[in-house]
Specification:
Elements: E1 2-6, H1 10-21, E2 25-29, H2 33-40, H3 51-60, E3 64-67, H4 70-74, E4 79-82, H5 97-110, E5 117-121, H6 129-141, E6 149-153, H7 163-168, E7 173-177, H8 180-189, E8 197-200, H9 202-233, H10 237-245, H11 266-279, H12 286-296, H13 298-309, E9 316-320, H14 335-345, E10 349-353, H15 358-365, E11 370-371, H16 375-379, E12 384-387, H17 392-395, E13 409-412, E14 426-429
Parallel strand pairs: 1-2, 1-4, 2-3, 4-5, 5-6, 7-8, 9-10, 9-12, 10-11, 12-13, 13-14
Antiparallel strand pairs: 6-7
Helix pairs in contact: 1-3, 5-6, 9-11, 9-12, 11-12, 13-14
């Protein structure tokens, strides 16, 4: 099947690579010519394990190409996926201008088209957004919904660091549609996937995405509140989570205490859902508390470091991990950035290291932070080490790796280190009951 993927960021690049890998002919469209060149050269525009190889293979086999010409791309496609960004606005609501700009471009192309086109929104958008595109498309194209084009909502549930795996082996696929022909086409497109397929209307599909992310964010904030109490009571919150997680009604996932959630989805989506509820006059109590807990959680590790050192003024602090999660270079809403800003404000000298995210972090943090080329380099001369991202290489650190520190003090914001291998290292951590 001919597929156009509009937007080659995180979701778009993975979607294009995934469908190409399944044998479809995919054209990726982006206004950024650097991204177009990157994809055509078989190189991913973002870091994601396995994505470079998947794109390179697809380009080599002529299953994938990239262009900035939307109208030209649509000429060979029966399905168009909208995968553009939906950034947050100051009040927490969602900025939909990029989605609407793409819809306008599709409408222009539809005027010259004789065959049916299914337009699928994969970007995360508030309930009611996808159906609101129908009158825009009809007015600007002169075509009729249900006859000349269809519209669908097919949310993504991709974990950064595991995105290709999630695309190819999803837990479920949500097919939100507004006409029978569109549903049939989506079912044909996903026929080879062996997982539950949930057919529903457009608004339901949009809400499934928001509700899913909001629930996971709630689990994280919940366990962080439990961990904060556990620290006062001398209880290991991770042992508590282990005991809870064996209950099938609860599950172990997303019960790791620490410095809170980050990334491009959870913070934005929870705030967007709260803003939507406020706009609709539907009071929410739980999710605003989830946001409030997550906003304050990163600063707990700053307070812990301050307590251990008796103050932070002039102290050299090693920060290991800048990305919001391992196997990603994404620093959007990363707790590490908030933590570093607080350290600097208190007069600390920060030396940071991350295997993949340093350039992205540098662009946001500026020149106030020094960067090391290795974990050991960051630790040299430091009076404390804050471990903020659970990269695999950090899990292998041993006591001898901390020997170059001025004070061998490790403070975990993400459980990662093996205490049995940290001989001679003073250790503290959120949720450790210490």
């Amino acid at each position: 099947m001919g597929i156009t993927v509009i937007g080659s960021g995180y979701v778009g690049a993975v979607t294009a690579a995934g469908f190409s890998q399944l044998g479809h002919n995919v054209v990726c469209v982006d206004v950024d010519e650097a991204r177009v060149r990157s994809i055509n050269g078989g190189k991913a525009p973002i870091y994601e394990p396995g994505l470079d190889g998947a794109l390179a293979l697809a380009v080599r086999e002529k299953k994938l190409r990239a262009t900035s010409d939307l109208a030209g791309a649509l000429k060979t496609s029966g399905v168009a996926f909208i995968c553009v960004g939906t950034p947050p606005m100051a009040d927490g609501s969602t900025d939909l201008r990029f989605v609407r700009e793409v819809a306008q471009g599709i409408a222009d192309a539809l005027r010259q088209r004789d065959s049916y086109l299914l337009i699928v929104v994969k970007s995360t958008v508030p309930p009611g957004t996808t159906e609101s595109l129908i009158p825009l498309l009809e007015e600007k194209s002169g075509k009729r919904h249900g006859k000349d084009f269809g519209i669908a909502m097919n949310p993504e549930f991709l974990r950064e660091g595991r995105a290709l795996e999630d695309f190819l082996r999803p837990d479920r696929i949500v097919l939100g549609t507004a006409d029978a022909k569109g549903l049939g086409l989506l079912q044909e497109l996903y026929a080879q996937f062996q997982c539950p397929k949930v057919a529903c209307n457009l608004r339901t599909a949009e809400m499934v995405k928001y509700a899913s992310n909001a629930f996971l964010a709630t689990k994280i904030s919940f366990i962080n509140e439990i961990a904060n109490l556990c620290d006062r009571l001398g209880i290991d919150a991770y042992a508590v989570a282990e005991g809870m997680g064996h209950d099938r009604r609860i599950g172990r996932a997303f019960l790791d205490a620490g410095i809170g959630y980050g990334g491009s989805c959870f913070p934005k989506d929870v705030k967007s859902l709260v803003a939507t509820a406020k706009r609709e006059g539907s009071g929410m109590r739980i999710l605003p508390a989830v946001v409030e807990t997550n906003e304050s959680q990163p600063l707990r590790i700053v307070g812990l470091a301050e307590k251990c050192l008796g103050g932070l003024e002039g102290r050299r602090i090693a920060v290991l991990g800048l990305a919001f999660k391992p196997d990603s270079d994404d620093v959007r809403e990363a707790p590490a950035l908030k933590i570093i800003a607080a350290l600097l404000k208190k007069g600390a000298k920060v030396v940071a290291y991350d295997p993949k995210a340093m350039e992205n972090a540098r662009a946001r943090l500026g020149d106030g932070v020094a960067y090391a080329s290795s974990a050991r380099g960051a630790l040299e001369g430091a009076e404390a080490c804050l471990l903020l991202t659970e990269w695999e290489e950090f899990k292998n650190l041993q006591g001898k790796d901390f020997n170059a520190m001025k004070r061998k003090l490790a403070i975990e914001g993400r459980r990662c280190l093996d205490r049995g291998r940290l001989e001679g290292v003073e250790y503290h951590g959120i949720g450790r009951g210490i």
